[in-house]
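Section 5.1 Outputs to date
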Amino acid sequence: MAEGGKFKSMHSNGNIIYTVFFLMLTGLSGISLAAGGDSVPGRTGEAGYLILTSDDLLPAAEIISTLHSQEVRVEDRLNTEIVSVDTLITGAYAGYPTEMAIRLYLLDRIADTPDLRFLLLLGDENYLPPIYTLGGDSPSDDFYTSAVEYTAIPQLATGRIPVHNLDDALQFTDKLRDYTLTPLPGNWRDKIMLLADDTNKSSNNILVEMTHVAYSNALYLTLRDQFDVQTIYGTEYTPQPGPGWLLQPDMTADALANINSGIAMLNYIGHGSPTTLADEKIIDMDRDLQQIHDPVNAIWVVGTCKFGWYDGKDAMSEALLLKPDGAIALVAASRDIQPSSNYSYLDNFFETIQEFVNNENDYRIGELVSFIKNDGPYEHLFHLLGDPAMRLPFPRMANIIDVPASSDTLRILEPMEIRLTQTYSQFNNYLIIKGPEKDIMRGFPENNPTDFLFYKLPGDVIYQGFMADQAQIIIPIDIQFCDSCVGSISVYSDRVEDGLETELIAAVDNRASIPIAESSAEIVDDIGPVITMSSTGSVVKSGGVLFPPYELDIEFTDESGINLMDAMGHGLRYWLDDESGSASLIPFFEYYSATDGHTGLSLATVEPGYHGLTIEAWDNINNKTQSTFNLYFTGVGQFTTEKIFNYPNPFEDDTYFTFSLSDPATVSISVYSLAGKKIVTLSAGLLEGGYHTIYWDGRDQSSSAIANGAYLYKLKAISQSGETFESIKKLARIK
């Protein structure tokens, strides 16, 4: 931990106390910890990392040791040592209960090794039993290294990977190595989702229930100038009756969609259990775990009771950690926690992240979780489930926007120009422009007419997409205009540099108060956006066939730009068959330029059969396009050809053979007489997957018109992997 770290603590009386907390890990030269038993050349005197585990899990411990001592960038490497608890309890610390033997050993190591900085507990409670509160049943890994027993001031940045066996441990190490060594570029690193419980709770004080959103709003105000913050609050949704209590299906859908689109961190405040967020089951282990397909492995910070209960429970936190497309780390309480103590810790947590982004500290996740503790109430309950030496994914603040060369006003219906400084013109840049924040007031007259909840929501998105060194954006007519209305501009930049080790350089810049002005511009445009759709690289048209997993790419083009604000329903949405089930496409939309953009759409859960897919889009002048594609969703996953027919049939002079391929294939169609004589073969060559037509002029191989009557035709398709599909059908010529 850096010297002079400043932390803020809010106690239950509401007073804010500022303290200065110093932790001196100065280190002495000449001390070297072993990486799997071998010293690391040239690493003496640097930060040490101790992995405490069991004999059963040693292969996984070796992988983590090698990762941090040899595979990461040189400047990030640690002196690592692996110690087996099985050896520990039979040696000098024999005769003590295992948990106390661990504590005594660690205190001795801290005294002997001043540069020891990180502690990983690799194994669940069966391998490494935790120390419980004095006379209580609440575990805390802080107690292993606290100078004073049973206090939440650990001397080492501590994390636990609560695996049950070696297979689970190796599965997690695979995910950890990918996250660390092959960093994924992308503005997901600048995204934090704030999830808050609603105010519905049987027989509870409404003022307590209001704190979920109120505390999340306070975190939003802390983070909004550094991050693209996405807020999903229960108070913004209408609960639905469910078994035993209310449900929030729309809130669940939005939360899962954001997780699956890629975010750096999720924070939740509200009620919960080891398997569920909120009584309304916003996210539920049994129902939703298999619906989580996180492409980047977010960090989950869960401010609720018991979500981190890893000892003796089948908890969702453990399942997310072990899931390959789940979380990379979790910060959660192991038992019940009071709202004020919960917020006090989270407030410190996110203020310290803010300092990281502002280049004021260089913490790793274990330092962030452990060293902000000052033994406040319940702080010992917050555990890091994950690798304490893992680097934080967030970008750093930098001067990316060339402010003098960029437009200084969001002028409605006029192009706005954003330019970047020369340094970042060579980076991968992602631009987000938002309109004014929304001030929300919620009253609860059924409880008390004087109870009101006030909070802010982020402004509507005007533009989101990649850019080079400059970009032009058309500001939509729906943007709110007033004398004091302001919007915001944020540019995220990253670049992967390959040297001896891969390094991802990520930065962000923000202009928080851009005035919004009226305009006298007149754009002559009365046509809505053009919508085109493709799947596996082939254009999809109405009447076409989709093959599993039903992945679509939808492109939008309009000379006035595409409206993303969703004001008065002027946004992007889609529905299958029934408009009442419409969903927004805005979270996944990305601009290519001021006039073009696209979004992906996964329909993997759609039942096979015929469905009408409707896409609705508005441009920035509010011209609307609504296109319905009548599609056949085939349940066949292997290579196949569907929707084979010729039209017209019967035909007079010529006809068209139509079909749809699940994958690219070489296609030919042969026509035969009923007696089996070949009339003609039409070779189409290699075709992409999707819908196709082949024209036939009704003539044989010698170019003579065929006689009236019935015929057979055989379509043969050979995929690039060698799979063959054949189908025989009838046709007739009548003239």
